[in-house]
Amino acid sequence: MTRTPFIAVNARDVLSRHGLDSFEALWALKVAAVDAPNTGRGGWSSVCRLELEDGNGQLQCFYLKRQDNHCTRTLHSPLGEPTFAREFRAIQACARQGIPALEAAFFAARSEKGHAQAILLTRALDDYAPLDEWFERWQQLSAAQIRDLIQSAAALVRALHNADRIHNCLYPKHVFLRLHSDGAGARLIDLEKTRRVMLGQRDLIRDLETLHRRSLVPSRSQRLRFVLAYLGKPRLDAEARAFVRALLGRTAGKGMNR
Question: Which domains does the chain carry?
Answer without folding.
Answer: 6-123 (3.30.200), 129-254 (1.10.510.10)
